[in-house]
Amino acid sequence: MATSILIPSGVLGLGFDSAALERGMGLKPDAICIDGGSTDSGPFYLGTGTSKYSESVTRSEWRELMQARERANIPLIIGSCGTCGTHQCVDWMYQMTLDIATEQGQSVRVARLYSDQDKASLIEQMNAQKIAALAPLDQISGALINQCENIVALAGIEQIILALESGADIVLAGRTTDTAIIAALPIQRGAHPGSAWHGAKIGECGALCSTNPTSGVIMIEFDEDGCTVQPLATDATCTPHSVSAHMLYENADPIELFEPGGCLNVAKASYTAIDERRVRITGSAWVPADRYTVKLEGAGLCGYQTSSLVLIRQPDYVANAALWCEKLSVFLHEQVATRMSVADEDYHIELRLIGVDATLGALEKNRSLPAEVGVLMLVTASSQTMATDVARLCNPFLLHFPLTESEALPTFAFPYSPAESERGAVYKFLLNHVLELNDPMDAFELKVEDIN
After folding, report:
1. Hey, which residues does 438 pair with through a beta bridge?
2. What is the pTM of this model?
3. Cβ–Cβ < 8 Å for 117, 88
4. What is the distance between the alpha carbons of residues 191 and 193, in angstroms, rounded to a whole number?
5. Residue 363 half-sphere exposure, CB side, CA atoms within 13 Å?
6. CA gap 346, 303 in Å, rounded
7. Helical residues (DSSP H) of 53-147, grouped into ranges
8. Residue 169: phi, psi to the nearest 5?
9. For 92-147, what is each residue's pLDDT tens digit?
10. Is 173 helix (H, G, I), strand (E, B) or coil?
């Protein structure tokens, strides 16, 4: 039995073409699936349990999807609610769903799938040798677990299928793999598992697999032999190249993709253009694993940060910006050591050259000099007060520190006043591990409620 999944966008809050959505609904999909986030935007959102996307935009898009779901009477599934998939973000989406259902007069059954992990329970699992590290991290420890503010496990299809079996009209899932929400219903209905996982990988970011990546909406039809990908915007097409290329996106290996319960292998996959817009995928394989494991993600506080930005235009300083930063860094640490009561381990100063290599650092190959360079100073310390105090000590030297002792003091420019901006708490990822489960629901909680 063929199963069609409509994917409005790569993530809720990013935007989608309403006309394309309606065109897709006219093709009578069996479910609407959309991602809510990932780790792409860094550890802050998991550390704080908050979303990176505008609440008003998210609410507007969710309302439109709930209206489309109501008309078609099909499931609406979102994974990784609120960017990070913590319980706070699942409940954030639930409150939004409740408000919209009340406003629209909808009666819906809502399943909430929670992915949060209890630290004490994880330490027990660690002691039972049920947790293994993924490269490049070392083995897990109790101290590392306790350092995390939030820890989530990434759900697979089993947890989503269980939510659907509850009769849910809307599934609000905590952290899931991007593919699981798309592959779940097709596999439940008998689709080829390799093609279901492969098609889900291709469709996870919506129209990114098409010739018009910003157009948003796509439809994937799954069956017993393969799947067919179709963009819904009139100015978008899918080609074998655009579709196959998505296996390279956010994946270390273009052939294998590891998921809870197994591995997708596309070594023998074929991509065939059915017409000018659609691509058929066949030959993908799903290789079940001996053990059922889920990935763990954890983020913890690593300090508080204050930033300053100075702009350098003097040609000799632009040409020697890296050397200037190297000398300035040594000087600033000497100043902090002699003039402030701050231990070395309690603060860190980083200087990034914007316009030169601020993004790639030592990996940057193109080092042609711009007309000006922005020097971004990041001071991270054990408290916000300390970070700002160190940044203020550094302030005059960012403006006037000379390359050599014999020359006159240079004068640069701060683009804003005050020069220091307090960024607040900063977080880092602490876990990149897998947890072995006896049952796929052992690390998850499902709650189902009717909204009338």
Report:
1. none
2. 0.93
3. no
4. 6
5. 3
6. 9
7. 55-72, 87-104, 119-127, 142-147
8. -80, -35
9. 999 999 999 999 999 999 999 999 999 999 999 999 999 999 988 778 999 999 99
10. strand
